[in-house]
Amino acid sequence: MSRSYCTAVTVTDSEDDAARLARGIVEARLGACAQVSGPIRSFYRWQGSIHDEQEWQVLVKTDADRIDLLIAHIKENHHYDVPDIVVQPIEAGSAEYLEWLTSETRPE
């Protein structure tokens, strides 16, 4: 049976918080790689108002069998009431890279 891989993305309102989330995810071995990009400009409706905010994005690459734990970790460590967490499958990739994703997301 072949393995499945995915990316997960979340956003937060500061570069420092994004870096803290990214580091914590990699340290917990829930993602092999977490990349922070930004600032980005986000428009969204929250509690009846339209917001125009600066945010930073955290993109995590992981083995699909770690995704439930990753989502729980983000929820536990994120300060937003409802963190933006979106997961997408990785359809294909370098075999060596995907093997590395698996090895780096295994508990020591």
Task: Explain what you see.
It is a single chain. This protein is an alpha+beta fold. It has one domain: Alpha-Beta Plaits. It is built from three helices and four strands. The protein has helices spanning 15-27, 67-77, 95-104; strands at 5-12, 33-46, 49-63, 86-90.
Strand arrangement, largest sheet?
2-3-1-4
**Arithmetic mean of pLDDT:** 96
Oligomer: single chain
How many domains would you count in the coordinates? 1
Order of helices and strands: EHEEHEH
The top level CATH class name: Alpha Beta
How does CATH name the architecture?
2-Layer Sandwich
Biggest beta-sheet profile: 4 strands, antiparallel
State the helicity in percent bands.
25-40%
Dominant shape: elongated
Number of E-state strands: 4
Structural class: alpha+beta
Distance between the termini: 23 Å
Strand percentage lies at: 35-45%
By DSSP (H or I, 4+ residues per run), the number of helices equals 3
CATH topology: Alpha-Beta Plaits
Radius of gyration: 15 Å
